[in-house]
Amino acid sequence: MSRFARALAAILFALFAVPASASAQAVPKVGHVFIIVLENEGYADTFGPKSPAAFLNALAKLGALLENYYGIGH
User: Fold this and answer.
1) pLDDT by residue (tens digit) across 3-58?
2) Does residue 72 fall inside a structural domain?
3) Of 36, 45, 29, 28, nearest to 63 (Cα)?
4) What distances in angstroms separate CA 7 from CA 1, 10, 11, 44, 68, one per listed residue?
5) 26 lies in a domain?
6) Is the Cβ–Cβ distance between 52 and 46 less than 8 Å?
7) Residue 47, C-beta contacts closer than 8 angstroms, at least 6 positions apart
8) Number of folded domains in the chain?
9) Does the pTM exceed 0.85?
10) Which long-range contacts (CB under 8 A, 24 or more apart) does 26-30 make?
């Protein structure tokens, strides 16, 4: 499992894990979930049809993909 997938799984678990003693009414509804992918490859390499991370394209189809954001430093 890739480092990204493990991090995503940990975030989703933290968001949706409910203690056994908590009632369903005590848990607030999740309004928004943001997944920010930072990659040191070009857009075509990361999201293109030959990308080894095909799950990124699947996620993009479920939400909004902002294509024109660029890193300006490290």
Assistant:
1) 777 877 777 777 676 665 555 567 778 888 887 766 678 888 888 888 888 888 88
2) no
3) 36
4) 10, 5, 6, 23, 24
5) yes
6) no
7) 56, 57, 60, 65
8) 1
9) no
10) none
